[in-house]
Design goal:
13 helices; about 45% helix; eight-stranded mixed beta sheet; alpha+beta; elongated
Length: about 250
């Protein structure tokens, strides 16, 4: 079964008949794509499906997309989103589900994932039970940079409150192995301005713009293909912040 396609359709509340009508294909064709992950439509149709559902072709049909992989310096860029909130929840769910070695949330608050993914604390428990390393790097809710950012954003749901929401949900995980740190004071400025969310060799990277909160800032989906490429650069940034981080209080 093509779980990625089914998840993307569920996220958009699109039924097979609706997708078939949109593409001018038979309902049986859509059902066949859902039933068999190895069955993919023609490239033009794949592009239409991906655009309509708001996800990348590579996410829906990774094997078929390999034939059109880019060869330049941007070959690690899977998708770009003008707003983090424009990235379908199905993309996050699929990356989390696929992760077999590592899940690393290195946003400053990380609270949104608990609101967007149902019972996410249970998902984290399951990943830990599967032997996946799970880490959360948070900003210090009492830090100077946190207070300064709150004044910049000037929104009702403050930065420190969003961090506390993440911590309350992380406390529900109830499984040994979960790692949680605050970035150190010296790194807080670098941390608050750039979020890196890593799932094995995929990463979602979100640079924060001016006064905008995270969901209004742009985001890139990267996939590792080369040593010292885009993926590695951002992964190294997150690791450096983690290495200097301090245990969360």
């Amino acid at each position: 079964m093509n779980t990625a396609l089914q998840s993307a359709m569920d996220d958009k509340k699109v039924r097979p008949g609706q997708l078939a009508a949109r593409l001018s294909v038979s309902v049986d064709s859509v059902k066949r794509w859902l039933r068999d992950a190895g069955t993919a439509p023609h490239p033009g149709t794949r592009a239409q499906v991906a655009e309509f559902l708001g996800v990348s072709e590579e996410m829906l049909w990774p094997a078929a997309a390999k034939s059109v992989v880019k060869t330049g310096a941007d070959r690690e860029v899977v998708s770009v989103y003008p707003y983090r909130s424009a990235c379908p929840k199905a993309v996050w769910a699929e990356l989390i589900e696929r992760a077999q070695k590592e899940i690393f949330f290195a946003g400053y608050t990380n609270y949104f994932i608990f609101l967007e993914q149902p019972a996410f604390h249970r998902t984290l428990q399951e990943k830990l039970e599967q032997g996946v390393r799970v880490r959360f790097l948070l900003g210090d809710p009492e830090g100077v940079v946190t207070r300064a950012r709150e004044q910049v954003e000037d929104v009702a749901l403050s930065v420190s409150m969003r961090i506390r929401i993440a911590q309350e949900n992380l406390a529900k995980v109830g499984r040994d192995g979960l790692e949680v740190r605050y970035s150190c004071a010296e790194d807080a400025t670098n941390h608050v301005g750039l979020s890196v969310f890593r799932f094995d060799e995929d990463a979602l990277v979100c640079p924060h713009l001016a006064r905008l909160v995270g969901h209004d800032s742009p985001m890139m989906h990267l996939r590792k293909r080369d040593a010292n490429g885009m993926f590695d650069r951002f992964a190294e940034h997150a690791e450096e912040l983690w290495d200097r981080g301090q245990p969360a209080r």
